[in-house]
Amino acid sequence: MRVPGVLVEIPWIIRDRAVEYTEAAYKNGRLSDGELTNRFERLIALAHTPKGMPAVEAVAVSSATTGLAAVFQVLAARLRANDPTYVPGVSSVIVPTNTFVASAAAPLAAGFRVTLADSCPVTGNLTKNALAEVVAKDPAAKAVVYVPIGGSLSPEIEQVRDFCVGSGLDLIIDAAHARAVQQIRTPGKSYADPTRVTSVGTNYRMSEAQAALGLAYAEEWPSVLAERTRVWRNYLYYLKRLSDAEIYPVIPSAFSTANHYKITVRLPPAVPKEAFIAALENASFVGTAGGTFDVPLHEQPALKGHPLVTAASDMAGADEWRRRHVCLPIYLSMREEQVAHVCESVITTVKKLTTERK
Ligand SMILES: Cc1ncc(COP(=O)(O)O)c(C=O)c1O
Q1: Mean pLDDT of 47-58
Q2: To pair with 130 at 20 to 30 A between CA atoms, which of 3, 19, 144, 261?
Q3: What is the Cα–Cα distance from 346 to 184, expressed in whole angstroms?
Q4: Strand-strand pairing, 113-117 and 92-96
């Protein structure tokens, strides 16, 4: 049995609806800021408004990178106006080292320094203790980026949030892996008269064609999530049933609804990850998905030695996470026997590599 590491699937119901919506957008002649984007924004805002709370605002942007860029431009403008201690190129943003480069590139582009914080070796997330250690060393910090790794928020987020509130730091969630974010509109246009541009801004808006797919997905989200959860449960069952090889799935906490974007396992410390991935592919025809993340920011050539980027510690936690975590295949159409095959192959491969090294 062959199981590819990654398979991008768009279920037919979503495909059909997205095509129908795109046609409507082309007929209307509105390629951005049209009805589809508005509907998408309303749906997302509704999904993220807690019961009994005032409605949140959702603003659709063209990518997570542009969303982050907008947030940090707004933060810099707000600090310039209100905080006499803010100094461009001196004031900093704390970013976990275990993330994608955009999480650090956005604050750098907005004129902040970046201080990298270590990550938890077991979950890959930023922890309150790591954050407190960095803040003690970096009094110029103004904000913290939190990245929910692999599609769920860890319970630590509450401690991180309380710490940020107590320390007067803004908390920005880079939720590229997990829907849970409020975004900010910065095209610079006046709301009263959209032909008047009242501040210099950048248009990061989502196009109507993107919104067509986003809307179709958002409308079908409960059934997509149910399918992913089914695959995830199968993984838990087979890993538990078979495991006597010290393989531990990274369990999303009940604190948030995980989207199961990733299914991540931790290898025993003695098993070399590269050899494991190669053996899994060659002997069992099982591919793996990209890690979250395989190269932390303190090892990225663009950031290592960057004059505005400092690593706050030795990053031992993030290094262990990088060395030991592997993301297994997970996609909507994945059958139970495929999951069973992946789990059996993972366990056989780990045992084989463990024996070889003894
Ligand atoms: C944590 C994180 N932030 C931001 C991004 C950037 O996302 P986009 O490709 O939508 O700009 C990614 C992409 O992988 C990511 O993993």
Answers
A1: 86
A2: 261
A3: 43
A4: parallel
